[in-house]
Design goal:
Layout (H helix, E strand, L loop, with lengths): L31 H11 L1 H15 L3 E2 L5 H8 L8 H15 L1 E8 L6 E6 L4 E3 L5 E4 L12 E4 L5 E2 L5 E8 L17 H19 L5 E7 L5 H15 L6 E6 L8 E5 L4 H18 L17 H35 L7 E2 L14 H7 L15 H12 L1
Parallel strand pairs: 9-10
Antiparallel strand pairs: 1-12, 2-3, 2-8, 4-5, 5-6, 7-8, 9-11
Length: 397
Amino acid sequence: MRAVREEDPYLLSGGRRVESDKFWRWGDDNLFPTALALMSRRSTTHRRIINDKADYISGKGFVCDPAQPLLARFVARANGAGESLRQVLNKLAFDKSLFGNAFLEAVTDERGSFLALYHQDASRCRVARDSQHVLLHHDWSRFSAAEARTLPLYPSFGRQEDGTLRAVVHYKDYEPSFAHYGVPPYIAGLNVSAIAYKTDRWNISRLDNSFQLSGVMMLDASAGDEAEAERVMRTAEERFAGRPGQVMFVLREGAEQDNSRFIPIASQNEGDWRALHEQATSDIVVAHSWFRTLSGLDYASGFNAERILHEYEIALNTVILGEQAELLEPIREILRTRLGADASSLEIVNRPPTRSKPIYMKVWEARRADGLDYDPDDERQQYYLSEIAKYNIRSIE
């Protein structure tokens, strides 16, 4: 049988080891972010959780004090690329969920006449040896100091050739014994993410072979030399083996009667594979400190709006609000110190993925349904829920 070795994305092998005294390596070979990004592209549940966490953390947009028009304009357009502040925050939240690190570049000038915030791909950033700067490079497997950009870490700003002042905010999740980079919260689930990916790959292998059994094919044939025998086996493999390695071909000297036969290798472990995949999927959710219904895992058993809302409330108070506060704190400070805008009123709009109450209910009716104090004669409680939702959308826009 011809052995076929496939690249395993969960092994941190990303080219030559980069040695440099200019920056701290991120992982043993400095390519740990590359391995994490590749893993997120291979494991479906893992990627879904990262996407959902980023969307929930960045919310549905921002609201701010209408008496701050400068702040409102910045929320609508945060940089020269035309991105809104919500779009920038979504990329930061995605990187932080995936890598445990995120990088935000702030651009301004001496007079504070403008401010722009740009997301920087975390996989392209490394912390300098002095721990006061960040190096940006397009390919860390082939690092060249001449091609790298160096920017100071916030709150320090550095003057650039174009006359602007720039700084980089480094967000990182705390992990004991890791001083220069954060560690993603799902670090304990790396192995189970690999299991989920490999069980999916095993099912794809079975599909590619039309669910044929593995086995050994004994061929009776005559070959003039070893090269001809190899050619016969390769031809048979290409035509009948499907995925390389699914069937092993053995060529033996032919006799008067053709004794070619297929010897199947039976396997009764399908149930074990399924259970292993389901257990790995559950462990991924736990490692992310996330919830099954918010990951779309329980929809097959029925759409339970009450459970979704319940788990969303838990996620909001245990994960989402904390991440939002961490991401917004330096942004508010930069807006205050560099743009002169009071950003204390800047808040993210959080909205659950589903509604438990019909939008034609009035506020006092909704409060009554939730067991809260209500007053049918209060003018503020006479609005319909649909009217409140429209007001929130206008505030976001």
